[in-house]
Design brief:
By secondary structure, this protein is an all-alpha fold. It has a domain of 58 residues. The protein is built from 2 helices and no strands. Helix 1 runs antiparallel to helix 2. The longest helix is centred in the C-terminal third of the chain and has 43 residues. The chain is rod-shaped and about 65 Å long. The two termini are 17 Å apart.
């Protein structure tokens, strides 16, 4: 079996950065929802306003939710790998 080495500090930092990225995407979702509320409140009326609102809701919010899920999954995978490696080291 090949020798596997892990820098636990770097792994913890990567996990932390993925979690922070997830939080930033969540904040961005709040901003997009505020923009949608402005549009729906009359900021851009007519077909263009409806089209933009629909695009923001159906595409952008979905992509942001997907990124949050991916970042959370990666943080969890890093944490699990670090835990498994630490257990194997001891």
């Amino acid at each position: 079996m090949p020798d596997v080495q892990m820098n636990y500090g770097d792994m913890a930092n990567m996990s932390k950065l993925f979690r922070q990225g997830s939080e930033q995407f969540q904040s961005t979702i709040g901003t997009v929802n505020n923009i949608i509320a402005i549009l729906e409140g009359g900021g851009l009326v007519g077909n263009m306003g409806s089209a933009l609102t629909n695009q923001l809701q159906s595409i952008l919010l979905g992509k942001l939710q997907g990124a949050i899920s991916t970042f959370d999954m990666l943080a969890g995978a890093i944490d699990a790998a670090s835990s498994d490696m630490s257990t194997a080291d001891h």
